[in-house]
Structure prediction request, 596 residues.
Amino acid sequence: MTMLAKDISLHLSGFDLLRNISLEVEAGKVTAIVGPNGAGKSSLLKVLTGEMPVTKGDVYFNSLLLNQWSLLEKAQMLAVLPQHTLLNFSFTADEVVGLGRIPHQTGIAKDLQIVAEALDLVDASYLQRRFYTQMSGGEKQRVQLARVLAQIWQPSILGEQFLVLDEPTSAFDLSHQKLTLDIVRQLAERGVGVVMVLHDLNLAARCADNLVVIDGGVIAAQGRPEAVLTEALIDKVFGVKSIISEHPITKRPLVIT
Amino acid sequence: MRHFSAGRLIGILVILLPVVALLSMTVGTVSISWFDALRAVVGSSSTSQIDTILFDIRLPRILLAIFVGAVLASTGAVMQGLFRNPLADPSLIGVSSGASVGASLMIVTAGGFIQGGALVGLSLVSIGAFVGGFTATLLVYRLATSGMGTSVTTMLLAGIAIGALAGALNSLLSYFSDNDMLRQISLWQMGNLSGASWLKVTIMGAVAVLLMGLFPRDSRALNALLLGESEARHLGINVQRVKRRLIVLTALGVGVSVAVAGLVGFVGLIMPHIIRLMIGPDHRWLIPASGLAGATLLVVADSLARVVVVPAELPTGILTAILGAPFFVALLLQQRKDV
Prediction:
């Protein structure tokens, strides 16, 4: 069971945002997407989640074409965390996280329990009754992360579940970056397929089973981080000289620039 | 911190509204004791003159105030949610400006027939207002809808454009009207419940019940929409369908309200805002609480409108603003203190 893009292209207002991309996101694996600004990372996520229709090619979700699932069915299997969420209304943190339970009919008691657990998981229990509008950037991002986690908290009878995160750690300090990666690993072990756009190559190298490098709307390389991350590729894609070493503890590739 | 739990506020309003309505029965050019009013309402009759005042004049007017207030405030809450803007109100989608043109057009063209000119018991002005309001909303909605769905931003801009056009038409009509028509136009724009009849109450009541019955099924969708449209879609919500349904219901509700009561300002914009400050933005509670509070405010305002310049009456719309604005300012000040 996978999220699958078969030879997709996306043209928008005369621009080729994505060209002939084929990508498979497996359940139970972590897929990280990296690439320079404007390479098409967010566009790829939007196409994979059905937010934008492809110009060419097909997107499959759990062996059906993506648009063969109803919105509600999709929402029970797929949670998406966008880069920015503008919320100007003074919901409390637990109300925001509770929105993640909208696709499910599990009852108020169960929902409240899940909301509390999700907030606890992202180290945001102390925010529970605080107003979203008065939180710091990192706190808001953690609450939104808890919201999408609450959405796929329990397995779905419809199929494998997937979590899509667009730069989930951009506002996080070191400890919350690590926390996010730990959560992502736990989810993958539970069988959830995770796709995330990351900017930090070392974070990506550390957590990804499959590392996808996008440049100019095409896939420049994909595979295991050890195989993908080379000095030549980083020079070609990012235009930055680097040295690839090995992390002394995790044994994952370590990019030094 | 929120100062009220939603349940408590709704509980208070549910008790307050009938009390205010009963008190409102007693006030006016002729004073009636609340005991007589209560006795008349429960059925045992008193003198026929009091019965006439209560049943032919005051009761329809109070019921109309309740229904209009509830519809204006609840549709205001819905629009603010849909536009993700706490300063939105039903006039944004062109309904009030369109209604204004429709009413003015009837006042100016039907001129002499105004008092007698009526269709199934509704004045031509009412019908003109409803048609104008509904048409303007449809136009705004059409302009903002493309193959990609309805863009809320385009709708805001289209609402401004249609509003400006309607404003110009209105001025044009005023320019060509005589003194009497001008007075009628400006009085209509202030909003007034004095033309209440049982027919209007029935129509308005049916619309209010319809809206209050249908809004709850979309209240969680509105909550999700506060996050953004794509976020709401990822939560399984058919955003386009929800938008269309809510805009049609709002146009219907506000269109009928302005048809029976003219432009009663303030209630639709500020009442949901006040309630949100008290109980938060969850539409499951915000919509019914706003409806109840809007109804209460309009009953109070209309009661005052009947007594402050006895034996004449003030237009109700003036009183809603005079009553509501200071309360709103007080809430804002208190919030500033809390932060």
